[in-house]
């Protein structure tokens, strides 16, 4: 039975932004991921010695800010008016400014970690905080509007993910200030770093992936809608558990058991989403597993594996387990989900805009499946999976870091090339129709 608040499958294109707005984000993201992988290939084992290494932090932020957040922001600027009927104020100007700030700020932050220059951290803070605050502010204003019926679960997930982004920004700003003005502030850096990573990956990225999945899975992958227990107050409970786990961190005595209980519930909640998604994908109406399906299956398996490694009681302190959790969450869960999403959203948006231009000229656009041929996406997925497995193994055998990074770099460039085919179709056909 269809849940009462299942996301609608019909979309509203009344306030659809121009194709150039989301594409600038979608085409920038794979390049930042490729840059992170190339940096890892260059540095090799040195970047996997510990998660506290400046090299590791530079690579991580190139991925999380330059790739994942880049894609998420572009997707939100596109989805809010189309899926929820919510118009982001001054979308064109906001999208352009945020994109420039995010690109320049991410590069400055990565350079700051690599070179250790306080000036670079100050520049990165100014650019990133300005761009992200502008984005959050514009979305907050938009959220006051009435949303379309059926989009409640998606909008709720977006609201909570934006709240998590604000907390991630605050924690990240505190950490960056310690590098920008060394010795000025005395802070528990390890605790703040752990909270920053948790709110960034499980809050901002995780809750947004969940919210987007509520719309993308039934519409693009032809699955049944998510069950009511997930599209109801699920996102709210995940946010509350993130808050409880954050506040209870550092408690002693019985408080330690309570903190571990919050972590276990949090892991169980995300595992529930991962298991439900795999179940829906297994029962989808089309038995053929296209690249998007393969990417999302990989993402959910990596999410479950990351939760298992995160909670598994280690016999002895080791750097391998935290690095493995990072690889599984960033390259396995988030990058795989983003790649699968892009392979559906970009061809669809390109086809829609070409179809709209057809009314002015009568020229027929290509079939949506011809915009990015499936065989090209298939081989890119294969390279991505091989690179992911080698990077995961490199957490335990660092000698595998370089070959894994080379494959992942090739996969990211392959994703960029495939998405670029959509731009080529648009450039070649639309000017001829104007």
From TrEMBL:
Keywords: Membrane, Transmembrane, Transmembrane helix. The chain crosses the membrane at residues 21-42, 62-86, 93-115, 121-144, 156-181, 201-222, 260-282, 294-315, 321-343. This is Permease. The lineage of its organism: Bacteria, Pseudomonadati, Pseudomonadota, Betaproteobacteria, Burkholderiales.
